[in-house]
Amino acid sequence: MKQRRKELVFILLITLLFNMPGYAQQKPNVIVFLVDDMGWQDTSLPFWTQTTPLNKRYHTPNMERLAKEGMKFTNAYATPVCTPTRISLISGMNAAHHKVTNWTSPQNNVSSDNNDEQFSPAPWNYSGLSPKTGIPNTIYATPYPQLLKEAGYFTIHVGKAHWASIGSPGANPYNLGFMVNIGGHAAGHPQSYYGQDFYGNKPGKNTLQSVPDLEEYYGTETFLTEALTLEALKTLEAPIKNKQPFYLNMAHYAIHTPIQADERFYQKYIAAGLAPVEAKYASLIEGMDKSLGDIMDYLKAKKADQNTIIIFMSDNGGLSLAPPRAGTAHTQNLPLKAGKGSVNEGGIREPMIVKWPGVTKPAAVANQYVIVEDFFPTILEMAGIKNYKTHQKIDGKSFVPILNNANYTDNQRALYWHFPNKWIPEDGPGINYKSAVRQGDWKLIYNMRDGSTELYNLKEDIGEQKNEAAAYPEKAKALAAKLGTQLKEWEAPMPVVKATGKVVAMPGLTGN
Amino acid sequence: MKQRRKELVFILLITLLFNMPGYAQQKPNVIVFLVDDMGWQDTSLPFWTQTTPLNKRYHTPNMERLAKEGMKFTNAYATPVCTPTRISLISGMNAAHHKVTNWTSPQNNVSSDNNDEQFSPAPWNYSGLSPKTGIPNTIYATPYPQLLKEAGYFTIHVGKAHWASIGSPGANPYNLGFMVNIGGHAAGHPQSYYGQDFYGNKPGKNTLQSVPDLEEYYGTETFLTEALTLEALKTLEAPIKNKQPFYLNMAHYAIHTPIQADERFYQKYIAAGLAPVEAKYASLIEGMDKSLGDIMDYLKAKKADQNTIIIFMSDNGGLSLAPPRAGTAHTQNLPLKAGKGSVNEGGIREPMIVKWPGVTKPAAVANQYVIVEDFFPTILEMAGIKNYKTHQKIDGKSFVPILNNANYTDNQRALYWHFPNKWIPEDGPGINYKSAVRQGDWKLIYNMRDGSTELYNLKEDIGEQKNEAAAYPEKAKALAAKLGTQLKEWEAPMPVVKATGKVVAMPGLTGN
Does a structural domain hold residue A20? Predict the structure, then answer.
């Protein structure tokens, strides 16, 4: 009887304990630090096997610090442009599947595709993501911040949103599971990074790119990157104090165009001999890196660093059009080929770092390839959220096993890219009307214009210079079929040949 | 020994219990539903002893409903214009004390005062409220949302903020203790209530009054009042689910100019024979009233109504300038004299209703006078927050005793108004350069232009038509001295006589 009572008291205590705020606190905080348009080499942290001239040009001490404390991913991928990446991230779906394959215009129901002589546009979802069904030209999906919020997380978005067009629910981060939104809306870049310009809100001067919510800094010299960081840190005060787990989507507008000087760092790069536009670009990078450091410092000062996961990522490759970049076009991400907008590595391979205290080992390096839709199941797994319901089928795969073991290897998994759009008026390397697949070290690119394919061995040829399609026809055929089969399963949008009215064939399925 | 152990287990259980989320839930939610520029008679709910023609003109069924469920205050006061009221509310200070005596320009360090032939401007705090020290032309004070936040409340601001000018910290509700801000900034009115106008954000058409954060509704027919209500309800979802107490500052832009038709209600008032501008005005009121009803319905549906206090208030009297109002100027708040901008009752007496489930009795009516700085100590008392520290000395007095007892009476307390500013180019009744005091049924108005005073008995003469100063010289003298003594204690700003360079004398102190 006495034993029985002891047991009851024990059960009661345990029950109470698991309902206490302190227990909820055990859930880790998660910060996704998402940079815009940052290339794989736009950092002093080498992601390749060698230190490159670009690594020497840029100064990102806080990325180095984060990599020292966590795990560097050398083969992390996004999509060629921003909205598809942001929607893959938040929905867990591949771009070919969610069909928001190009960037969304802030204007409602306007496709951002350029006109093309050969093709009529593919039926892509040019109005973006929707948390509700029945919104034209959108993908209806459940964003993971909604699941985090339902699980008790304090969910915060700061910075660039760009998930959907104005006049649609996805334009509003409050509809995507966020409890706080500062500065995020339908636009994909800021009108201005300068407080002196009111970030684009001077009376009579606004555009759809004017950044909202920052009047405190109007007329001051506060650079947009700094203003967003200061605002983000304010939002963390309450959840840390209340021991409520938080999710912070720290989505910088930097380093997207307009390429404006962050004056805190600009002169140093001019002194180093860079062309003005490149000095501005480098200053945008270092300003972003300072933000990362400020957040890490804040967490440490608040004693929240040991319970906070930081995931650093970019949304697509560095811009390689010249102008606005200096130098020869498509050399800005060397050794990678091309840049933003391309399915070549320069357009899709990203600097990614993950620090999960107690899980990732310091200075770990993972070479396993991952892709941005993997963030969805990973973050929910980190938060201990299981058996969740989503409207969409999730394509991503949790990379928690990699975080547990940097040597984790899976050469059978295939990653897919699909860009049936005309991003810029003139085609470039890997740019406009391309699909791609990577499996192991092999990557195949499909050109919708003529059905041709390119095959590269990324281990031997990271620069995608040597097309091995003729040398390895069976490999090319197999990968093309794999790509085509997957695109068909996802019912990926394809452009239409104007001359025939026929939809462009998917690779490998009709004998291309 | 056995008894001892029982005690220990009991203490342990109690300790655990008080740390559980369920315990925190016992703190009531608080909603301040603040309307802009709504007069005491701008409602179908009679606040006077009689039902007036204006009560018959307007339709506010949800105010009637709230009054049926809670307590109506017939003698509730604000200040003559909006910013002073908003700062008194959030700081607990009288306007003469915080010295933000007129509305703040959204532009930094710009006084909104009109030029005057007789006077140079009083040294008022024309940049507004600051949560930090050392900001020029601001009052440094601790806002109560900060104290609520620190006590674990989820603090939300939706709608008009207007606490400080751009480029200053007070322009940003995130610096004033709010964890969420939707639509609030430095501006005092919306550029447009229409979604079709992007609420003033159409490219190239913006002003400092363009309302931020509502891109979801751009191009739709969603009236601003409705958009803000929809956004506010979204913010309540998480705290209700998490059983975290919330504070919602639901601060409508309605019914401030521009007087635009809320099309959901406009035709009905045209059909009733109102002039177009008055039909628009009435539609703004009914749209606001619908918002109140929607919030009440939402709380009920979420079973949160029994734990949520609703305080309905306006920030100053109804606009009585004509144009833009129809009819004869200063007749729009009858039986009250004048309107917005005036220290006469039409400028300062407000429709106020408080529903505190379990405390206020249904359909209760309180005739005790209260003033907007009373909200500060009242709300903190409602939230059970004691011994809080503020930078400022609080002038307000909790009205919780009134909520407990509608018959509570205090005829000794004095209320003060101070407007040493030039609001409009031509003086009007009670408008420009006036101070006032009310004690019991007596009210004295001091005219800075000539040092004259007016004395009214509000019980007998709510319309302030019969100046009793000559009939009751001792009463007038005593009240003038009381007013002057208090203004002196607060070091209230006074204008300067241009001709002499001398500061205008405070009432009752120098034999005026």
Answer: no
